[in-house]
Structure formats: structure tokens, C-alpha cells
């Protein structure tokens, strides 16, 4: 989907001949960064309810000064839904999407940089005499 937005796709050159457009390295990195940002946002959207419940459990468990156990997962979900409906599970989604997108983009960019750095031809280091 991102590649087609950039304009890199298979195009017809006649009836049976097909050729591909080979993108330059800057285009490849840009597409990978956009894809990473989209993937980070989607993963934040999917995992947000579970993370909200986990955070709620951690906070409620720390509030109890007695030695009894905190609320169960089911009780926490019911309380959360009762307080704000199912949309309460997605409070703070914008900042979380931004954070996850930034982290994914940084990881992909760093990975590509290190991959290209390590793939350079280092003839001067291992010269055979």
C-alpha cells in the first residue's frame, strides 16, 4: 500500500513484458519509516485495552495498605467499563500511538543505518598481501 503511494509498482511495457521500477535507497528508507509508523499505530490500537487494564491493576494493587489481594482482572474490566464505557479502554490513545510510531520508526531507521554501514566494502581493512 505504501509502495503504491510512492509510485513504485509493476507497470506494463506491452502485452506480456512487465518491468519493475527500482527505487533508490532514500525512497526505500522513507517507505520503511512510514510503514513502521503505521505499524506502531496499529499495534498501539490493538494493545491499548490490555495495557490500560494492566496499568489499572498496578495502580489499584499499590493503593491497598492491607495485605489482602487487589481486584481481579474481571473486576477491573467491569469497573473500567462501568466508569467510562468501552471507550475508557482507549484513553490516552493519541500519545500512545505517537510514542509507539516514533519508537518503531527509530528502530527501523537505526536498523537500516547499521545494516548499510556493515555492508560497506572495507577493502582497506583486510588486504591480502
UniProtKB/TrEMBL annotation:
Superkingdom of source: Eukaryota
SUPFAM superfamilies noted in UniProt: Mitochondrial carrier
Extent of the signal sequence: none
InterPro entries linked to this entry: MCP_dom_sf, MCP_transmembrane
Residue runs in coiled coils: none
Protein localization: Membrane
Membrane topology category: Multi-pass membrane protein
Protein family: Belongs to the mitochondrial carrier (TC 2.A.29) family.
Record's protein name: Mitochondrial carrier protein
Organism: Brassica carinata
Amino acid at each position: 500500500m505504501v509502495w503504491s503511494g510512492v509510485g513504485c509498482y509493476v507497470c506494463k511495457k506491452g502485452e506480456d513484458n512487465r518491468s519493475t521500477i527500482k527505487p533508490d535507497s532514500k525512497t526505500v528508507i522513507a517507505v520503511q519509516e512510514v510503514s513502521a509508523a503505521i505499524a506502531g499505530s496499529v499495534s498501539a490500537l490493538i494493545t491499548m485495552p490490555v495495557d490500560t487494564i494492566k496499568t489499572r491493576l498496578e495502580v489499584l494493587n499499590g493503593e491497598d495498605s492491607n495485605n489482602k489481594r487487589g481486584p481481579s482482572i474481571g473486576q477491573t474490566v467491569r469497573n473500567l467499563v462501568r466508569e467510562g464505557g468501552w471507550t475508557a479502554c482507549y484513553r490516552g490513545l493519541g500519545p500512545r500511538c505517537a510514542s509507539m510510531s516514533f519508537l518503531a520508526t527509530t528502530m527501523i531507521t537505526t536498523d537500516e543505518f547499521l545494516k548499510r554501514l556493515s555492508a560497506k566494502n572495507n577493502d582497506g581493512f583486510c588486504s591480502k598481501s
